[in-house]
Amino acid sequence: DAGDYKCVATNDAGVVERSLTLTLQSPPVITVEPVGTVVEAGATAMLNCQASGEPPPTIRWSRQGHPVVNDDRVSVLANGSLRIIAAQKEDTSEYECVARNLMGSVLVRVPLTVQGGPSHAKGSVIGNINDIEFGVAFLNATVTDSPDSEARVIQAKITNVPRSLGPAMRKLVSILSPVYWTTAKEMGEAMNGFTLTDAVFKRETQVEFATGEILRMTHIARGLDSDGALLLDVVVSGHVLQLQAVADIRVKDYTEDYIQTGPGQLYAHSTRLFTVDGVSVPYTWNHTITYDYTKGKMPFLVETLHASSITTEYDPLEETVAFQIHASIAKGERSNQCPAGFSLDSTGPYCSDIDECETRDTCQHECRNTLGSYQCTCPSGYRL
């Protein structure tokens, strides 16, 4: 019945008329309801909300009861949708769409979850392994949620790997450590590398095999590009256990402990196994990580990264090494205590390295302190 009406009165003396508009007011009704959304960090989140009513309702957004303020990243569009550009983990929250007019208001709540890291990574790998120089190998990785949502799945390929190195590189999962640490599924309050550093850090890695070979790697993570990809450069140098191309290699599940040793400083280490034709070969590796200390520190003194369901293979025709790994990160088993070889520094708090070499009877001749441990050495002509 709403519309324009005209009343006309007529007699012999003339005509008079009046016009009016009949408006039927109604309270707002949500016609397009926002739905719970999960986006990757760095992506754009869009929460849609539309309403009808008379007068036409205005739409406002709030976050846990506080009005959403427009800025460079967050804005309410003309159609009432809330847009968040370059979403950050801190944007994870419950949002409210409120439609209001003279007749009343209506509210609907919706959760937004911003996930542990970029969805893909790319970079270069240069250096030498077993005295074999290779030009520039290229690393490309994609990151997705596992079906059970208990881990992130990293699938990576390194191309342009010489056939003389391909079989040996099948066990070098550590070459991916910056990728899976940056993107690991965050359990509870634990932080992955992206949340902690914004994917800008330097990582020095040393891999040592039980057979004596040592390989060193330097990883430089340079943040995300405009497409949200982690940018990574890797330099490798040293030796690894040489393997036959036909050898059956299986990498066991493992964990890495990350220890906050100071502002912008982490130390990580792991001991693990891989099998060659059913024979177990132990090896260890450790990492030192430096990043911008103004980014803060981990919420725990120790966090543990879990790596599982690891597969590797080398394609000699394409000269490509392929990896797949499931990764998650959680607080350490003793997240509030410093591990052996470290002492609590209450200023952080941090876990400071203990210099075992300060004790005179630690070693008979020469002592060399290392992070979390130490080494005894002998003069020429002697052995431990």
Automatic annotation (TrEMBL):
GO cellular component, one term: plasma membrane
Disulfide bridge positions per record: 357-367
SUPFAM superfamilies hit by this protein: GFP-like (SSF54511), Growth factor receptor domain (SSF57184), Immunoglobulin (SSF48726)
Localization annotation: Membrane; Secreted, Extracellular space, Extracellular matrix
Pfam family name, one: G2F
Any one GO BP annotation for this protein: dendrite self-avoidance
GO MF term set: calcium ion binding; cell-cell adhesion mediator activity
EGF-like domain segment(s): 353-384
The keyword Protein transport is assigned to this record: no
Keywords noted in UniProt: Calcium, Disulfide bond, EGF-like domain, Endocytosis, Extracellular matrix, Glycoprotein, Immunoglobulin domain, Membrane, Receptor, Repeat, Secreted, Signal, Transmembrane, Transmembrane helix
Listed InterPro entries: EGF, EGF-like_Ca-bd_dom, EGF-type_Asp/Asn_hydroxyl_site, EGF_Ca-bd_CS, G2_nidogen/fibulin_G2F, GFP, Growth_fac_rcpt_cys_sf, Ig-like_dom
Membrane topology: Single-pass type I membrane protein
Domain Ig-like positions: 28-113
Residue span(s) of domain Nidogen G2 beta-barrel: 117-339
Name the record gives this protein: HMCN1 protein
Organism: Zapornia atra
Gene: Hmcn1
